[in-house]
Structures are given as structure tokens and as C-alpha cells.
Design a protein that fits this description.
The chain has 8 helices and 13 strands. By secondary structure, it is of the alpha/beta class.
Length: about 260
């Protein structure tokens, strides 16, 4: 894989992230009061950029913004001393709500976001600074899987892609530099009901010759390439697992650079 000092975290569907810590366990149909609210610029690439910066690397965020939420996003990102390259589109930047109620996994409520055209995407590609490009997160309305596959080939260098479902399949078909997925996302792309593992990821690598970084929860992560590597994590107390995959990919790419 090519190496570059700066990570360009291209996030197609940026968001305002709002984490709400509830006073008690969530019960449908009942009133809940919030104990603590945390608001920040959100999206897979933003989380990745935070980790790269925390490790001492260079990272910049790229994506599409719209409306009042877009302006607030810029302020929140700037408050963390993170820089961004953005293209304004019509509509309103989405909000993503994460509800923490003491259980192992939070409840997540995500809006869909503003519509983005292929022309918007191409214009943003032309404005990107030099660096290793990482495309992270979901696609916005207006960008189909077929369009995404074509647009991936228009980046100045082969990007790294963190995606799921048909978007992950499109990235493999576009022969990107590397894909990151978890076991459930891997199972989805190969059409299995149970979680996919190293054997299934190895089969995809043989088919597409695209390296795969497979996250496996508490058991660690495996890089499947011409040679494969398994990393075992330390035992930790889980409070909120959201963004853990973004964090791992950011640390991995920082390590390569």
C-alpha cells in the first residue's frame, strides 16, 4: 500500500452527533429524561481523523454540508482544531442520536441526510488536498451503489474504504487499496446469516485481490493480505462501542504512515 503523511477522511454523509445519557433504561412509549448530552461533529471519517490526530498524525475531514446544521458542524469541528474541505449542497446536514441507558449497546437513531449528486462528488474530489484518502461511512441520498463504484475510480489514488452491504461490494469491485469491515458486514456482503470470519474474508481477498481489515469485536482484528496478521486487544470495560471500528482504522493507517 502507498504511504502518505496526511489522512484525508472523506465522509460522504457527515452528521451532527448527539449522545444522550438517559437517567434510566429505555422503555418504548414512556417519557425519558436526559442526564448528560454531548454534541460533536459526526461521521465515520471524523472519528477516524480524531484518532489520527490524537496519535500525533495529520488528518483533514472532507464531505458535504448543508443548512444550519452544516454551519454548526463547522463550528464544532473547528472547536476540536480539526480542519475540513467541504462542498455545500441544498437541504440540511443530518443529525444522529445515540441513546445510552446502561445496557451494553446503545440505541441509535440516524437521519438520512441531504441529497448529493455525482457532480457534487466530483467537484469535492477535485478540491481534496494530497494525502491517503479514506472513504468512510454511509452514502448520502442521490448516490447509488453503481455511481459510487464509478466515483471510487476518480480519486487521484486508490482510496481505503470503510463500508457495508452493497457499498462494501462496490468497493471490492472497484479494486480499492483496502476495505475495512466487521463480521456482520462481511456476512452481509457474502450472503450469509451468521457472522463471517477469516476464512470468508480470505475467499474475498482471493477473488478481488483487495486487502481486508476485519474487526472481530473482543477477539481482535485480522488483516487479510498476501500475508495475514491477527491483533489481539487488551480486555477493556465497554461503555459505548460506537465508533470503535473508525478508531481502529484510523490507528491502523497512522501506523502504516
Amino acid at each position: 500500500m502507498e504511504q502518505s503523511a496526511q489522512i484525508v477522511a472523506f465522509t460522504p454523509n457527515l452528521a451532527l452527533g448527539r449522545t444522550l445519557e438517559l437517567q434510566r433504561e429505555l422503555t418504548p412509549g414512556e417519557l425519558h429524561r436526559v442526564r448528560v448530552t454531548h454534541e460533536a461533529a459526526g461521521g465515520g471519517g471524523v472519528n477516524l481523523a480524531r484518532v489520527v490526530r490524537a496519535l500525533g498524525g495529520e488528518a483533514i475531514v472532507a464531505g458535504f454540508l448543508a443548512g444550519w446544521n452544516g454551519r454548526k458542524f463547522r463550528q464544532l469541528l473547528s472547536s476540536e482544531s480539526l480542519q475540513g474541505v467541504f462542498r455545500e449542497v441544498k437541504g440540511e446536514t443530518r443529525e444522529c442520536h445515540i441513546l445510552l441507558d446502561g445496557r451494553p449497546h446503545p440505541t441509535e437513531v440516524y437521519e438520512s441526510g441531504p441529497t448529493v449528486s455525482g457532480e457534487d462528488w466530483e467537484e469535492l474530489i477535485r478540491a481534496l488536498p494530497p494525502g491517503r484518502i479514506v472513504v468512510s461511512g454511509s452514502l448520502p441520498p442521490g448516490i447509488t451503489t453503481e455511481t459510487f463504484r464509478t466515483l471510487l475510480r476518480q480519486f487521484p489514488s486508490r482510496p481505503v474504504v470503510d463500508a457495508s452491504g452493497s457499498t462494501l461490494a462496490a468497493a471490492l469491485e472497484a479494486e480499492v487499496a483496502l476495505v475495512k469491515c466487521n463480521q456482520a458486514e462481511l456476512a452481509d456482503v457474502i450472503g450469509r446469516d451468521s457472522a463471517g470470519g477469516v476464512e470468508e474474508a480470505t475467499e474475498l481477498f482471493r477473488r478481488y485481490q483487495t486487502p481486508i481489515l476485519l474487526t472481530q469485536g473482543a477477539t481482535g482484528a485480522t488483516l487479510i493480505d498476501h500475508e495475514s496478521y491477527w491483533a489481539k486487544p487488551p480486555e477493556i470495560s465497554i461503555r459505548n462501542p460506537v465508533c470503535s471500528g473508525d478508531s481502529l482504522l484510523g490507528a491502523f493507517l497512522w501506523g502504516l504512515a
